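Sample intake sheet
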Amino acid sequence: MIRQNAGIWAGIVLLLFSVFVFWQSFSLHYRTAFGPGPGMFPRWLSGILIVLSLVYIWQSARKEIFRLSEILPKGEGLINILSVLLSVFVFMVIVNRTGFMIAGTAMLFIVLFRHFKWYAALIIAFVVTLILFLIFKPLLGVPIPVNQFGW
């Protein structure tokens, strides 16, 4: 039986992510006329993350091996994780067509309907989405995807 070391796999994923961010940081200016540019922070942060992920991979190879199946949640915890992933996927798929209000309400409803009665989950999801919409769109002026009705 082959035992997979989850620490090494996590370190590899972190290393790949940090190398990608490091590579992308070169498309931003490191300095501007006023001081540090937008590329300085991601370049340094991802460089430090590359070093830390290499150290973590090295330490994971020397320590006790544990399998990924031993650390992943089971039962209710796994269902919670899957419902969050499903809700985020649904949000990404429908937000440009339905607007932020409907997509956000659907996303929160998917997460909440197992823990509340369906009508309470729907009300909570709508109110939270409405509050977020009112904070970001009119108050802060953040561009949010809207439908033909403006919400």
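Comment: The radius of gyration is 21 Å. Strands lie at 31-32, 35-36.
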